[in-house]
From TrEMBL:
GO terms for biological process: respiratory electron transport chain. The keyword Hydrolase does not apply. Residues 1-162 form the Cytochrome b561 bacterial/Ni-hydrogenase domain. It is a multi-pass membrane protein. InterPro entries: Cyt_b561_bac/Ni-Hgenase, Di-haem_cyt_TM. Keywords: Cell membrane, Membrane, Transmembrane, Transmembrane helix. This is Cytochrome b561 bacterial/Ni-hydrogenase domain-containing protein. Its main location: membrane. The chain crosses the membrane at residues 30-50, 80-104, 124-144. It is found in: Cell membrane. GO terms for cellular component: plasma membrane. The lineage of its organism: Bacteria, Pseudomonadati, Pseudomonadota, Alphaproteobacteria, Rhodobacterales. It comes from Sulfitobacter pontiacus. GO terms for molecular function: electron transfer activity.
Length: 169
């Protein structure tokens, strides 16, 4: 799960910084690469969601968390997991409402296009808002765990960080 968690971070940053219009200016190879990155991101997101549905949250609040922090811990994690699922779902709906056949990574057909341009625009807007809202929640999640590490001096960061970073924590 650590690998999945930390593998999502660069993908998340990629999609925050690189838009489809940006890669379209570079050329077809860049568009395909962006699409492959999307396929990897969605696959990882769905794997994470399935893991959550089967086993629940893997992390527990810990003994040092109390009050608002104890309440916020599972809320942040569940919001991220369900939010990532929602981003994947609205991405699928973009393909469903498209006027052309979209392919994830040039490998997997997203859906049979139903040629619904107004619905496609609306779903695209919802998808964007949802993704950027999720990004702000991910930043709040990171800030929460950094706060835990600095203020409570618990091992929350060490538990999830790769071993090479433990000496810095």
């Amino acid at each position: 799960m650590k690998l999945l968690h930390w593998g999502m971070v660069p993908l998340f940053v990629w999609f925050l910084l690189v838009q489809p219009a940006d890669v379209a200016r570079v050329g077809p190879a860049a568009v395909r690469f962006h699409s492959v990155m999307g396929l990897v991101f969605v696959s990882a997101a769905l794997l994470w969601w399935v893991s959550y549905m089967r086993r629940g949250l893997l992390g527990r609040p810990g003994p040092k968390l109390a009050g608002w922090a104890r309440w916020l811990h599972p809320v942040l994690h569940k919001t991220l997991i369900w939010g990532i699922f929602g981003v994947a779902l609205t991405g699928l709906l973009i393909g469903v409402t498209s006027t052309v056949q979209l392919w994830a990574g040039g490998i997997v057909p997203i859906a049979v296009p139903l040629d619904m341009p107004r619905a496609n625009d609306l779903v695209g807007l919802i998808h964007s808002i949802e993704f950027y809202a999720l990004a702000s929640i991910a930043l709040a999640h990171a800030a929460f765990h950094i706060w835990r590490h600095l203020r409570l001096r618990d091992n929350a960061l060490r538990i999830m960080a790769p071993k090479v970073l433990h000496r810095f924590l």
